[in-house]
Amino acid sequence: MNNVLERIVDVTREEVRRRRKEVPMADLEARIHHAHDGRPFSEALVRPGVSVIAEHKRRSPSAGEIREGATVTEIAQAYERGGAAALSVLTEGPHFGGTLGDLEEARRATTLPILRKDFIVDAYQIYEAVVAGADAILLIVAALDPADLVTLHREALAVDLDVLVEVHDESELDTALEVIDADVIGINNRDLGDFSVDVERTYELLSDVPAGKTVVSESGFHTREQVEELERVGVDAVLIGETLMRAPDPEAALRVLIGHGGSGADDAL
Ligand SMILES: O=P(O)(O)OC[C@@H](O)[C@@H](O)c1c[nH]c2ccccc12
């Protein structure tokens, strides 16, 4: 594992230990039975064209503060009106400024399926996700050893969550396929070791993904042309955060990226 990711994972484990003391796992388990009905996440990604998973992201280690002042409700509703297929809500606190409360708020504000975007290393976080109203979680292959990947994947499916399995290179893709036979594969164009971005990463790995898998390209997208290129090569969905969060009008920006912007709408980006 590499440095930035390693540090975030260490901090996450500490945070989970602290939260576990406040709300014991058994309490969360009891609350799962009263959790909301799920919304179909994976299904939303395989509609015709490239589906957009629009992300709520306040700040990041690479970009610093991205957008201040806007509420989750405003952003999530703008994404829904703009045509997002699903939402991603970053709930990691120390590095991304997110909370589980953000996810709860997004759930109340829209009808879209929601991905809990976080560094999931413990089953406790999966239970939290369900109780907060998530329909899917992210598992990052680079952050987990194979045994933990198997356990967490199984736990998530057992509580009816879909799982987006994130890879960044060929060996991680092999792990995702061989160890858990992942259905939904996220190719992250950003290296979580140094936060450098190269959207070519998606094209390099795509040919190694077997037919029948759902592919999501993640990170670094700014233009309609880039999204069109993904569509041409058969990528199912794209995960976009920063470009939408920085846009003066996130709804208009999303329309442009999806191709529903109309003439002269490029200014929205
Ligand atoms: O803001 P961008 O470049 O559009 O990227 C969104 C998303 O892919 C990115 O936030 C992300 C992908 N995988 C992650 C894992 C943890 C935290 C964040 C991420």
TrEMBL record:
Signal peptide residue numbers: none
GO biological processes: L-tryptophan biosynthetic process
EC number of this enzyme: 4.1.1.48
GO molecular function, one term: indole-3-glycerol-phosphate synthase activity
UniProt domain Indole-3-glycerol phosphate synthase: residue ranges: 5-256
Pfam families named among the record's database cross-references: IGPS
Record field: catalytic activity: 1-(2-carboxyphenylamino)-1-deoxy-D-ribulose 5-phosphate + H(+) = (1S,2R)-1-C-(indol-3-yl)glycerol 3-phosphate + CO2 + H2O
UniProt entry keywords in alphabetical sequence: Amino-acid biosynthesis, Aromatic amino acid biosynthesis, Decarboxylase, Lyase, Tryptophan biosynthesis
Pathway annotation: Amino-acid biosynthesis; L-tryptophan biosynthesis; L-tryptophan from chorismate: step 4/5
Family matches, as HAMAP family: IGPS_B
Similarity comment: family membership: Belongs to the TrpC family.
PANTHER family: INDOLE-3-GLYCEROL-PHOSPHATE SYNTHASE (PTHR22854:SF2), TRYPTOPHAN BIOSYNTHESIS PROTEIN (PTHR22854)
Protein name: Indole-3-glycerol phosphate synthase
Natural source organism: Baekduia soli
Protein's gene: trpC
